[in-house]
Specification:
The chain is α/β, with parallel strands linked by helices. Helices cover about 50% and strands about 10% of the residues. The protein has an eight-stranded mixed beta sheet, sandwiched between helices.
Length: about 325
C-alpha cells in the first residue's frame, strides 16, 4: 500500500480521500487552514464541506505540505481554480523528480491566461508527470457510494494506470483517455450550461426544453473545444455528455443552483452569497464569452447567459432571441470512415 496526498480539503477532495483510503492507502488530506485541519482531525469528519460522512482511519488531515508530498508519489490537486497556481507553485519546492505524479481534479480555467489546470501543473512542476480527472462526479453522491465513474486523462499511460489502481472500487470506476485537453475543457465548460438549466428549471419548463438545452449545450461546447484543438469524440464520453447531463439536472450542482436563484429574481451576488460555495461556471462564463468573441465562434447560449448575468438583459427577452435565431445543422462533427 502506498501513501497519497490530496491538496485541498473541499467536498470532492474529501470524497476522493475516502475512496483511496477505503482501498487501503494512507491519504494525507492537506488543508491550508490549521483550524480546519484540527476540526477534521478531532471530529473525523469534514463538517464544513462534506458533513455527515465519517473519514476512514487512514486519512491524515494535515497542513504540512512539504512532509506529505515528500512521502507521496501521487498528489491530487483539488483546490479552486482561483488559487490553483498558487498551490502549484508551493508544490514546486517539493516536487523535484519524475517519481511524482500530479493530477488535477479542479474543473476551471485560469482567468489571466486561459490555461487549464494541467497546463499550470506542467508549467510550475515540469519534472513531474501530469494528468487530470473529470466526469459526472458529484461529491455527495460519491460519498454515499452511489455508482460513479470518472476519466483520468494523461499522455502517460503509466500515470493513468496508477490512478486507476488507486481509485477503482466496487462503486467507482475509472476510465482512461489521452485527450487531456478535451477532458479538462469539458469539465470546465459544462458549468456554464448548468447555470442555464438551473434557470430553466426555476421557470418550470418541461423535459423537452431540458433535452433541447443539454443537446445544444453539447454542440456548443464541442464546437468551442474543437476550435482550441480538442477531439470532438471526447465530448461523447463521461467527461463530456456524462458530466454535462449530471451538472445540468442535479440540484446538488452549485452552478445549477446559481441559475435557479437568478431565475427566481435574485441578483448574481445574492445567489452566490446564498450558495456560500464557489460556482466555477460564473468565472468560466466570463472567460469563454471573451474568447469566443476573439475566435468569432457562434455560441448563442454563452452569449445569452452572459447577457442575463452581466448585461442586465431579461430572461424572457434572451429566450425569445434564442428561439428565433437561425436554425443550423444538428450534428456538426461526423467521423468519416
Amino acid at each position: 500500500m502506498s501513501e497519497v496526498t490530496i491538496a485541498g480539503g473541499g467536498n470532492f477532495g474529501t470524497a476522493m480521500a475516502n475512496i483511496i483510503a477505503d482501498n487501503g492507502h494512507t491519504v494525507n488530506l492537506w488543508m491550508r487552514d490549521a483550524q480546519q485541519v484540527e476540526d477534521v482531525r478531532r471530529h473525523r469528519e469534514n463538517r464544513r464541506y462534506l458533513p455527515g460522512h465519517p473519514l476512514n482511519d487512514l486519512i491524515v488531515p494535515t497542513d504540512d505540505l512539504a512532509g506529505c508530498v515528500g512521502r507521496s508519489e501521487v498528489i491530487f490537486v483539488t483546490v479552486p481554480s482561483a488559487s490553483f497556481r498558487e498551490v502549484a507553485r508551493e508544490l514546486k519546492a517539493f516536487v523535484d523528480d519524475e517519481r511524482h505524479c500530479l493530477v488535477s481534479a479542479t474543473k476551471g480555467i485560469e482567468a489571466s491566461s486561459f490555461k487549464l489546470m494541467s497546463d499550470i501543473l506542467a508549467e510550475e512542476c515540469p519534472a513531474a508527470g501530469v494528468g487530470a480527472i473529470s466526469g459526472p462526479n458529484l461529491a455527495e453522491e460519491i460519498a454515499d457510494h452511489h455508482y460513479t465513474a470518472t476519466v483520468i486523462a494523461s499522455q502517460s499511460e503509466s500515470l493513468c494506470e496508477r490512478v486507476q489502481e488507486l481509485l477503482a472500487s466496487s462503486y467507482f470506476r475509472v476510465y482512461a483517455s489521452s485527450d487531456i485537453y478535451g477532458v479538462e475543457l469539458g469539465g470546465a465548460l459544462k458549468n456554464i450550461y448548468a447555470i442555464a438549466c438551473g434557470m430553466a428549471s426555476a421557470m418550470g419548463v418541461g423535459q423537452n426544453t431540458i433535452g433541447l438545452l443539454i443537446t445544444r449545450s453539447l454542440a456548443e461546447m464541442s464546437r468551442f473545444a474543437v476550435a482550441l484543438g480538442a477531439d470532438p469524440l471526447t465530448f461523447l464520453g463521461l467527461a463530456g455528455v456524462g458530466d454535462l447531463m449530471v451538472t445540468c439536472t442535479s440540484p446538488l450542482s452549485r452552478n445549477f443552483q446559481v441559475g435557479y436563484r437568478v431565475a427566481q429574481g435574485k441578483s448574481l451576488d445574492q445567489a452566490m452569497e446564498e450558495l456560500g460555495k464557489l460556482a466555477e461556471g460564473v468565472n468560466t462564463l466570463r472567460l469563454v464569452w471573451a474568447r469566443s468573441k476573439e475566435l468569432d465562434l457562434y455560441m448563442p447560449l454563452v452569449m445569452g447567459i452572459h447577457e442575463i448575468l452581466f448585461e442586465g438583459q431579461s430572461l424572457p427577452d434572451v429566450i425569445g432571441r434564442l428561439m428565433s435565431a437561425q436554425q443550423g445543422r444538428d450534428v456538426e462533427f461526423v467521423v468519416v470512415q
